[in-house]
Amino acid sequence: MAGPSTGRLMPLLLLAFFLPSIVHSAAVHNVHHRMLPSRSHHRRAPSPSYTPPNITFSPVNGSSSIQDSSYHRLTGLLPTVLENAVESSFHSWEIGTLVEAILETYYPSTRAFGYDPNYLNGKVPTEALQVVVAALGSYPWSGSPESTALNTSSADLSDYLSPSSAPVTLAPQALVNGDGSLGDPCSLGAGVWTLAEFLTQQAASQSLSTGNEGADDYAWAVGNQLQYLRQQPTSSNGTMSQRENGFQLWADMGYMIPPFLASLGLATSSDDLLALGINQWLLESSALLDTTKDIFRHINDFDARLWATGNAWMLYGACRVLASIGVAGETSNLAAQVGSTVRQLSAIFPAIFAQLDSDNLVPNYMYESEPSLSIGDAAGTALIVAAYYRFAALAPRYATQTLTAQANKAFDGVIAQLGDDGWLTHVVDPMGTNGWVVNLNSGQRSPEGQSFLAHMWVARTALGV
Ligand SMILES: *[C@@H]1O[C@H](CO)[C@@H](O)[C@H](O)[C@H]1NC(C)=O
Ligand SMILES: *[C@@H]1O[C@H](CO)[C@@H](O)[C@H](O)[C@H]1NC(C)=O
Ligand SMILES: *[C@@H]1O[C@H](CO)[C@@H](O)[C@H](O)[C@H]1NC(C)=O
Ligand SMILES: *[C@@H]1O[C@H](CO)[C@@H](O)[C@H](O)[C@H]1NC(C)=O
């Protein structure tokens, strides 16, 4: 139904999807030639593992055009929800998701969905950048610009994204330990890049404690991550792998890899990276979409079931990529890929919302006859709903009243599982310890689910329905 390689939408029609975004396109070119004051040179003691920073979030303002009481309940709880997310997120993808959630919620102009090309003149996103700095607390900086020659910011940061232009030699490696995952550490890449960009500004370099490291060092680290990703073996058609040491595809990577590439493409005005981002998403989809059901499989081999959170990762990742392409003004250049992606999403949302259970949650595994595997998952549902609101803003002609009503019902279903303590319950075990299952009596919490709530809240707030 939604084959990836046919292009029947007309480019003109596609432009209409992105019209509001395209208006911004002329001004996305950030230039990074500013000199920084030299930094102090006290090297931070190496921290063996990540310690979450102590962050207090301020209240958020809900949209007055939304009446739903569950929406306003989430508005009130959101700072606590995010504080719980900070306290519980330790794995690479959890931290990457958390950083994106904080930025989207409190600093939307830094992100493609709420993009303002002048965001570096705005408030420093300290809460998110503190998490990024802490996450890279054990990064091996040996060979970095600071440790070699460039003690002050002198380079165009985008030069660090290619070995041929990098002002100091790249050292290909992941940003953080991915425990064998190639894709997961990439989820932090956009956040590290935002840190580098803000460190070119005096306000941020004074308010963040980054030790010796400055803009160039973090840009170099992102270049190292990108190069590391590019050096790994792909499948014969060029699909990147979610795992190191052997090719494997997980739906999770839809949020980890393509948005990393596309957000760097937007930040550095690189058409190649924008194209790589959407092409990788389409390749992942070509391997993982069950076209008889229009729902993604989780993993190409050992867990080929239709997992709620896997679908959520793919869907939200696609929307981030589409939004990046839109604000970069590249929608018409990439019309075939954009059209294909939009067309797939327009089939997948109805297919998934048709599966909502009596609690208005997406079953943890869909089309699954074993009841213990098909219990509703509030975490995966939250990110699917978030993706739907983003999609509705990007491609309004596909946002039918029926679908929006289903999304709002699922929103209610998720918030029914949110405690007054700001912890989401009724969630899948995100570690898959005993399989990716929802065990209702286990007290299971989900760090990523906490961040998904913020994605869901801000996506609905932006849409205003
Ligand atoms: C975190 O910050 C709050 C408010 O500043 C303070 O009350 C609390 O003791 C701090 N917690 C830790 C673990 O430092
Ligand atoms: C919420 O609204 C108040 C009053 O308009 C404003 O002062 C505050 O900055 C807003 N908070 C956020 C997080 O936008
Ligand atoms: C960086 O600057 C500091 C102080 O300005 C200096 O002591 C150090 O040698 C410099 N590092 C390199 C590798 O040049
Ligand atoms: C690309 O390769 C993957 C892995 O072999 C495969 O599953 C997928 O169908 C291929 N997609 C296309 C468009 O060729």
TrEMBL record:
InterPro entries referenced in this protein's UniProt entry, alphabetically: 6-hairpin_glycosidase_sf, 6hp_glycosidase-like_sf, Glyco_hydro_88
Residues annotated as signal peptide: 1-25
Compositionally biased intervals (Basic residues): 36-45
Listed GO MF terms: hydrolase activity
Entry keywords, A to Z: Hydrolase, Signal
Annotated spans, Disordered: 36-56
Gene3D superfamilies: 1.50.10.10
Top-level taxon of the source organism: Eukaryota
One GO-annotated biological process of the protein: carbohydrate metabolic process
Pfam hit, one: Glyco_hydro_88
UniProt entry tagged with the keyword Signal: yes
Name listed for the protein in its UniProt record: Six-hairpin glycosidase-like protein
Lineage: Eukaryota, Fungi, Dikarya, Basidiomycota, Agaricomycotina
